[in-house]
Design brief:
Blueprint lengths: L1 H25 L3 H23 L7 H20 L4 H30 L2 H32 L3 H17 L17 H24 L9 E2 L2 E2 L7 H25 L8 H4 L2 H30 L5 H7 L1 H13 L9 H22 L6 H28 L6 H42 L6 H17 L2 H9 L3 H37 L29 H4 L1
Antiparallel strand pairs: 1-2
Length: 546
């Protein structure tokens, strides 16, 4: 399961590095290729909740095998894609659908396979492997894109899938329930609407604004900006209404004696919800950090994709070390305390990086705060997944896993939207302000906003060739002036974004206060209603013994 997670995480980080090369090869724009990345996230978020319940109705081994085969099929299609339509089909739709099954299934298998300290160690190792995959992905992707082809990144994943399929024989063949229920179609539809709308709203917010229209939103030939508002607020509203309707629908279904997609006692389990909230906010911080930091390293400090991976290597080593070594520390220190220590480590690391931000920053100087950030992540992930999943009876681990992964998807898209849009907005605004100061010009706030949007649009569509063509038209003095403005703007944006991340970390620390002191034991799970104590699902506990 760790190798499966590694492959899926590696896949996402490989794509981000290859975007410029793919733009040239497909003769398209950055926006179109980034659309494939966004659609992948959208498909995964939309399907992860219903997909997470599959082990309750089908053989766990069969679900894993089919998901891996579908994933391999999408990988093959993406690797041979001859246009963006085929790329969207293979990478965004097919691979995204399979990833929606794989992510929650990983948690379910570990819950069934291990208990107590072994389970905590397993989840810690899984977290460490995931961190390594996201870090070395740019290194592998950069090397393959530079010296061979981005297509080899997909091809190598097929080898990994083949290895996982061999080891799939050790996964339990039993479903979680001996009397599988039919799929809750209404709950599935509402969960898809809620997840899709929320993630879409977050993705659109950076470019089109959160509330007021920043620029026209046009689909085909139709503009959608009701009352001068941004489309993001409408998608977010539909998403929240969708999830509210989902909870009400699940409540009515359970009262009617039918099987809901997610039982109410899972949604109202306080220790579980506290863990979901903490997990969600941690994903917001991670998404924001891994958006701004690589951009800063490459755009300002001039690092290559390989050097960026080297700079993040202390994070990988520290996260995998602390996530695998510290699970047993709960014998001496409360898991809640360990999580809060990890949160503090993340905050201190971000403050240190803020103080270092400047022309003299080097890989060696960054090593300590980057490692400290990784140690904090390792301490959190070593406890939070096990604590959250252990709060729910094993028979309902599939549903709990789906909910946890939905919270991660939403948190990741929210972190990218909030931190990313703030970072880029601050950068483009600082560039405009710097040029205006250099030219001794003053403009109104509305004119300044128009200039910022125009610069964003120009930068988004410009290729390396057009950028070089523009620079060749400038005098050496003008070029030097612009380089200084760009550098100062990026330093300013990096500092501002790091401070915003520190603020989110403080909210994360606040959210962690709702966590239970200890990981719940099986006998302490009192949120399971008495009516379900004799549920046929309880007989699925034999799957653990198998």
């Amino acid at each position: 399961m760790s190798l499966t997670t590694f492959i899926v995480v590696l896949n996402a980080s490989l794509m981000n590095v290859a975007i410029p090369t793919m733009v040239d090869e497909f003769d398209t724009t950055v926006t179109v290729i980034q659309g494939a990345v966004a659609l992948y996230s959208l498909v995964t978020a939309a399907l992860v909740l219903p997909a997470g319940t599959l082990p309750s109705r089908h053989s766990i081994r069969r679900v894993l095998t089919v998901a891996l085969i579908v994933y391999a099929g999408g990988t093959l299609v993406a690797s041979i894609s001859w246009n963006t339509t085929i790329l969207y089909l293979g990478w965004s739709l097919i691979q995204g659908s399979a990833a929606a099954v794989i992510f929650p299934l990983t948690f379910t298998v570990l819950i069934l396979s291990y208990e107590d300290d072994d389970r905590a160690t397993a989840f810690g190792l899984l977290a460490g492997v995931s961190g390594v995959g996201s870090t070395i992905g740019p290194i592998i992707g950069g090397a393959l894109t530079t010296y061979a082809s981005w297509r080899w990144g997909f091809t190598l994943q097929l080898v990994g899938v083949g290895v996982v399929l061999f080891f799939a024989q050790y996964v339990s063949t039993n479903p979680l329930s001996e009397t599988p229920s039919s799929l809750d179609k209404g709950g599935t539809a509402l969960s898809i609407v809620g997840s899709t709308s929320l993630v879409t709203g977050f993705l659109l917010s950076g470019k089109y604004g959160w509330l007021v229209e920043r620029r026209p939103f046009v689909v085909g030939e139709m503009q959608f900006n009701p009352f001068g508002t941004s489309p993001a607020i409408w998608f977010l509203g539909v998403g929240l209404l969708g999830f509210a309707a989902f909870v009400q629908y699940e409540r009515r279904l359970e009262r009617a004696g039918k099987s809901p997609l997610v039982p109410l006692h899972v949604l109202t389990n306080r220790p579980f919800l506290a863990g979901v909230l903490t997990y969600n906010m941690r994903s917001i911080v991670s998404a924001g950090f891994f958006f701004i930091f690589p951009v800063y390293l490459q755009a300002v400090l001039g690092y290559t994709a390989f050097e960026t991976g080297v700079a993040l290597l202390p994070y990988s080593l520290a996260s995998i070390l602390f996530s695998t070594v510290t699970p047993n520390w709960r014998k001496y220190i409360s898991p809640k305390t360990l999580i809060q220590i990890g949160i503090v480590c993340m905050g201190v690391a971000l403050v240190l990086l803020y103080e270092q931000t400047g022309p003299g920053q080097t890989i060696v100087r960054m090593a300590l705060p980057v490692a400290l950030y990784g140690a904090g992540v390792g301490l959190i992930l070593a406890q939070i997944t096990n604590m959250t999943m252990s709060a729910v009876p094993t028979a309902y681990s599939a549903e709990a896993s789906g909910v946890l992964n939905v919270s991660y998807s939403i948190g990741f898209s929210l972190g990218t939207a909030v931190i990313g849009s703030y970072f880029l907005g601050r950068f483009y605004g600082s560039v405009v302000d710097g040029v205006l100061r250099a030219e001794h010009e003053t403009v109104s706030a509305e004119q300044r906003n128009d200039l910022v949007i125009a610069l964003e649009d120009a930068a988004e569509t410009a290729t390396d060739a057009t950028q070089q063509q523009f620079l060749n038209q400038l005098t050496p003095t003008q070029r030097q002036l612009l380089e200084g403005i760009f550098e100062a703007a990026m330093f300013d944006a990096q500092r501002a974004a790091l401070l915003l991340l520190v603020l989110v970390v403080l909210f994360l620390l606040l959210a962690s206060t709702f966590l239970p002191r200890q990981i719940p034991d099986a006998d302490d799970r009192t949120d399971l209603p008495e009516s379900s104590q004799d549920s046929p699902r309880e007989t699925s506990e034999t799957a653990v013994e198998d």
